[in-house]
Amino acid sequence: MATLADIRAKLEALENNKQPRRSTGSSLVFPFWDIAENETVQIRFLPNGDPDSDFFWEELQMINLDFPGVKGGDENKPVYIKVPCVEMWGDTCPVHAELRPMFKDASIEDTARKYWKKRSYIFQGLVLDSTLDEKELSENPIRRVNLGKQLFNIVKNALMDPDMDNLPTDYVNGLNFRITRTKKGQYNDYNSSTWSRKETALTEDQLNAIEEHGLFNLKDWMPKKPSAEHLNAIFEMFEASLEGELYDPERWASYYRPWGLEYNGPGKKDTSETVEVKKESSVERVQNLSVTKTEEETETVAESPSISASTSSSSAQDILAKIRNRES
């Protein structure tokens, strides 16, 4: 005979529909956007494996280009491409040089906003709890976490708070980040996300996993800086997209092509970048933003958990100061 506790548990499960949700994300990228509405997951961000980086994230600046179809292929099926903005490397972007004057004309301002670079941020971390039913997970529990601007601002604002004494990535005195998905109209909203109030230390198993697998160098997940030829192709594609023209594989597939498009035609050796883009998703859905081999061939940088729990108190203060000085 079921106890009162059993009945309550079953009623709660029925009410909240707490069936594990299936996820279509890769084993590396943690697809937090697939959690159920009003659910929360916890992530413990980890340091950047790049010893020269000031931050525990990398910023992406990408330009969205859309075409009504593919020339010589399905000309009625829209395709989408994300290409890197060279302002990410401090260079002059020909696309943005074209866009900036457009903001002075109210009649074309919306078009300028459509092509304006979108910022997103690459982190890595441990997923501490999740209701997602993920398939084929790697033995390495360190996951890539792609945040959009809304979630990043929550991260950044906490770092700017003078009451934060330690880096949230500290192995002993760090903080967990709680991502909550709600809805605002038809769009996902993450404004309810927050840092945990209590500092916690990583467990022995988590420290051993970091020692065994090493931290990723987040720069390895960044797109390649466009060459002069690639930059010329980007501007040509921008002009074609602006005019509503079809994507032309013979002109651009050797540089950038939509996800899933194979091209074996004449021209240069294929050095193109394929970028996974799903129109219905937000920027958090961006998966591998660089050449496919980046995930498979990058060398991870090991960081031993025995090194003063990732950062000493003084170095943590130095890094927090750099973050606050950079943002101010």
Query: Main β-sheet, in a few words?
Result: 7 strands, antiparallel
- End-to-end separation: 63 Å
Overall form: globular
Low-confidence stretches: 275-314
Question: Could you say what the CATH architecture is?
Answer: Alpha-Beta Complex
- How much helicity do the residues have? 25-40%
Give your account of this protein's structure.
The chain is an alpha+beta fold and 328 residues long. It has a single domain, classed as Replication Fork Single-Stranded DNA Binding Protein (Alpha-Beta Complex), CATH 3.90.198.10. Helix content is 27%, strand content 19%. The chain is built from nine helices and 13 strands. The strands form four sheets. Strands 2, 3, 4, 5, 7, 8 and 11 form a seven-stranded antiparallel beta sheet that branches. It has a two-stranded parallel ribbon with strand order 1-6. A two-stranded antiparallel sheet has the order 9-10. A hairpin with a 2-residue loop joins strand 9 (182-184) and strand 10. The protein is globular. It starts with a helix and ends with a helix.
Short description:
27% of the residues lie in helices and 19% in strands. The protein has 328 residues and is an alpha+beta fold.
Main traits of this protein?
328 residues, alpha+beta, Replication Fork Single-Stranded DNA Binding Protein, seven-stranded antiparallel β-sheet, two-stranded parallel ribbon, globular
Topology:
Blueprint: H1 4-16, E1 21-22, E2 40-45, E3 58-67, E4 79-84, H2 94-99, H3 109-115, E5 118-129, E6 132-133, E7 142-147, H4 149-160, E8 177-180, E9 182-184, E10 187-189, E11 194-195, H5 204-213, H6 228-242, H7 249-252, E12 256-258, E13 273-275, H8 293-297, H9 313-327
Parallel strand pairs: 1-6, 12-13
Antiparallel strand pairs: 2-5, 2-8, 3-4, 3-5, 5-7, 8-11, 9-10
